[in-house]
Amino acid sequence: MNEQTKSYSWLPWLISISIIVLIGTLASYYSWNWYRYVLDPWTAANGLATIVAINEFGQGIADVGPHWEYRLQALASLITIFVIGPSLWIYGELKNEKKSADDEAHLKKGFVWYVGAILICGGLVFAVPATITKGIVFNNTWESAAQIPKCG
Amino acid sequence: MGKIFLWILGGALLATGAFFIPEQSGSMWPSLFLSSSAVLIYLAAFCFVWLKKIQSATKRKAIGWTLGILVVFSGISAAISYESSQRQKETLVTIRSTIETGIIQNYVNEPLLKTLRAHAQGSGDSNDFGKLFRAEYDSLITEEGMLAYDKDRDDNTVFVYMAKASADSLVLIGESAYLKGESSDFKNHSGETGRYQVKGILTSGGIDYERAN
């Protein structure tokens, strides 16, 4: 690996992160809710729990409807982040290692690697910064709730 | 390439199979927890088989750490979401319970207070609580002795019954179809069991309000 190639080895990762950031920005601008559901299985579960809780609040009985759209979103997200993403990434790395004799080809990671890396980057965005934010919001919300005097 | 797709297909089928083991109604957390366990098993098996094929030890470590961070933080995220949904449900139930007890108290107290006021003002048969009450509420009393406040609403959960309307006392019973009482064996005024029930008693000494269940 020559010095020039080595100095640009981070470029494929930058491209993957940029694609995720671009999709995230567009999703936020155009209110594409599917983006969040694809990368975070727990959002769908929380959404369904909210619907069940509100129905119980309003009607006094627990909602036992299947709500397939939420269930299938969560399942699809789980498979995308923990099965498809890591598998394609590791497979892409393995394929790239075999052709690493050619230094120029080292930068051309291939379609499989990019799909895997983009999914891993997306998963990490929701797993790390989003979880930290979620934790802070959770803490603040329930701390504030605990300060409200109880009725009765 | 075909081999990797077979692995992915296997992982997807494993996750889907685990997801559909619990009953698909109400909360999806049981399905999600089982499916998450299945994908973790898949991920461990996949890494065991495929990761060792990568020659660079640094790359193997980097991949391992990245996937480890993904799994650990996703687990924390799942725990926060689960706890949040549980607390949200409990809070909504508490709010609804507070509203429901307030409504019952209001529904029971209002007729008693109106009757007491009529008695204090000396209007009509002012010494007969039963007659004073009936003069105001007779049109609302059904054959079962219920005060039909919201008889046209299908989702009504608060019921008020006239248990006794005599000259010296007036007893109203408030019952909720939403709130559970202290004892599940308690026989309610309506014939149901285990419901929340309160009793409002008006006598010449004033209004007494007590929880029956």
Profile the largest sheet of chain A: none
Individual helix count of chain A: 7
Q: How many DSSP H or I helices of chain B?
A: 4
Strand content of chain A: under 5%
Element order, helices and strands of chain B?
A: HHHHEEEEE
Low-confidence stretches of chain A: none
Please identify the structural class of chain A as seen in this structure. mainly alpha
Q: Give the CA-based shape of chain B.
A: rod-shaped
Give the total of beta strands of chain B.
5
Low-confidence stretches of chain B: none
Order of helices and strands of chain A: HHHHHHH
Indicate the radius of gyration of chain B in whole angstroms.
Answer: 31 Å
In short, what is this structure?
The complex is a heterodimer of chains A (152) and B (213). Chain A is an all-alpha fold and 152 residues long. Chain A contains 7 helices and no strands.
How does this structure look, described?
- The complex is a heterodimer of chains A (152) and B (213).
- With 152 residues, chain A is mostly helical.
- Chain A has 7 helices and no strands.
- Chain A has helices spanning 3-7, 11-30, 33-39, 41-59, 68-98, 111-127, 129-147.
- In chain A, α2 packs across α6 (111-127), α3 (33-39) packs across α4 (41-59) and α5 (68-98) packs across α6.
- Chain A is elongated, with a radius of gyration of 21 Å.
- By secondary structure, chain B is an alpha+beta fold.
- Chain B contains 4 helices and 5 strands; from the N terminus they run ααααβββββ.
- The chains are: A mainly alpha (152), B alpha+beta (213).
- Chains A and B meet through α4, α5, α6 and α7 of A and α1, α2 and α3 of B.
